[in-house]
Design goal:
By secondary structure, the chain is an alpha+beta fold. It has eight helices and four strands, in the order H-H-E-H-H-H-E-H-E-H-H-E. The chain has a four-stranded antiparallel beta sheet, with helices on both faces. Helix 2 crosses helix 6. The structure holds flavin mononucleotide (FMN). Flavin mononucleotide binds next to strand 3.
Length: 223
């Protein structure tokens, strides 16, 4: 598979088939992702991989916390900016509208939206759920490195015929994730990553998100 094929066939999948993923394939993905560039070669990523019953236990623990109102302190970092400039606000709202339209959840249907949101915590039924963390002492620069590592995981999954969905939703229930996976206090939970065989017939997997033209963000200096 060409790199561009991996990039262009990757999209966030929100419905997976139960078909398992072999530990050997996961080790191959993680081993190759570990070649990610990082400033000073710090390699600041910490990865927790759950599958089988362990994946289900993590999901069950988060659902239990949600249902009992155990919301904890929430995410330990700003998942989104505190204030959205109009262009970003429009993009965020558009993708939400597109997803919920596909799912047949009308605007204002809080119960329908919550139902979809909760599926995050089942990793959208993917057989593999990963949690990406970083040492608390790391700076902004190392969060870049972790982002690169996350992307390499997603692209390498494509080479194995697998799909993914990155999930900041897990940072919101980091207190439960931490408890379940024995994540030390000196690490920050960045996000989850659902990984498995996407269900091609599932409605939400038909969402092809838009991108701004490169002129909107690229400044050229050619002479
Ligand atoms: C760091 C990160 C966190 C994300 N968190 C979530 C999430 O919690 N739930 C979800 O359904 N999608 C999540 N997404 C997926 C984005 O909505 C998606 O990447 C974006 O809409 C672009 O669509 P695409 O991935 O299909 O190209 C996340 C993506 C990133 C990069």
């Amino acid at each position: 598979m060409r790199v561009s094929e991996a990039i262009n066939s990757r999209r966030s999948m929100r419905a997976f088939k139960p078909d398992p993923v072999s530990k050997a394939d996961l080790e191959w993905i993680v081993t190759n992702a570990n070649r990610s560039a990082s400033n000073g070669n710090l390699q600041p990523w910490k990865l927790y991989v759950t599958m089988g019953e362990a994946r289900k236990r993590l999901s069950a623990a988060i659902h239990k916390a949600m249902d009992s109102g155990d919301n904890g302190p929430g995410s330990e970092y700003d998942v989104y900016p505190k204030h959205f400039a109009p262009v970003y606000d429009q993009r965020r709202k558009l993708v939400g509208k597109q997803l919920y339209t596909l799912l047949g959840v009308p605007k204002g249907d809080a119960a329908g939206m919550l139902k979809q949101f909760k599926k995050n915590y089942d990793f959208f039924d993917a057989p593999v759920g990963m949690i990406l963390c970083i040492d608390r002492g790391m700076g902004n620069g190392q969060w870049i490195d972790c982002g690169i590592f996350l992307d390499q995981l997603m692209l390498l999954a494509r080479e194995k015929g697998l799909h993914t969905c990155p999930q900041a939703a897990f940072s919101r229930y980091q207190h439960v994730v931490r408890r379940e996976l024995n994540i030390p206090e000196d690490q920050v939970v960045i996000c989850g990553l659902a990984l498995g065989h996407a269900d091609p017939d599932a409605v939400p997997n038909n969402l092809i998100t838009e991108r701004a033209p490169i002129e909107d963000f690229t400044t050229w200096f050619t002479t």
